[in-house]
Amino acid sequence: MDSAPDRRKHRRVHPMPPVTGTIALSRSVRVVNLSLGGAMVEHVHPLAPGQPCILDLPGQGGEVHLRAHVIWSQLYSVATGPEGAQEQRYRSGIAFTADPRETAAMLREWMG
Question: Is residue 83 one of the residues assigned to a domain?
């Protein structure tokens, strides 16, 4: 076995127990309501309170990206989806985290 010096910039650790995570995960949501402070969204996959997110709103003048975090999330309904499978739908409240003036300006521009 080679005993070459470790040239890594940062020390590596191996979490115990193992930890899972996600990278660049996009989830489709339906906006139920929207305000300058946040939104209620409906979706298929559960969200965790405290989870950071970005709400992307498509518009005629381009897409708006609003930074937010999940405040609450709960099971809203269970229905039979395509091919007879049970489909759970969740509703979550998200709060925008950018400066309220910046958020207001972005939403006004988005609404036209």
Answer: yes
Sheet (strand 64-80) strand order: 29-34, 38-43, 86-96, 64-80, 52-57
Q: How many CB atoms lie within 10 A of CB 59?
A: 11
Classify residue 93: in a domain, yes or no: yes
Q: Among 99, 46, 51, which residue's Cα sits nearest to residue 71?
A: 51
Q: Is residue 16 part of a domain?
A: no
Q: Residue 5 is encoded by which pair of tokens?
A: 């010096």
The three-state secondary structure class of 84 is helix
Supply the pLDDT for residue 109.
Answer: 81
- Tokens 């409240």: give the residue: 93
Q: Cα separations (Å) of 68 from 31, 50, 91, 100, 103?
A: 14, 9, 15, 12, 10
Beta-carbon contacts of 98 under 8 Å, excluding residues fewer than 6 positions away, are 66, 67, 106
Mean per-residue pLDDT pooled into runs of 10, the chain (112 residues)? 65 56 64 88 90 84 85 92 85 91 86 69
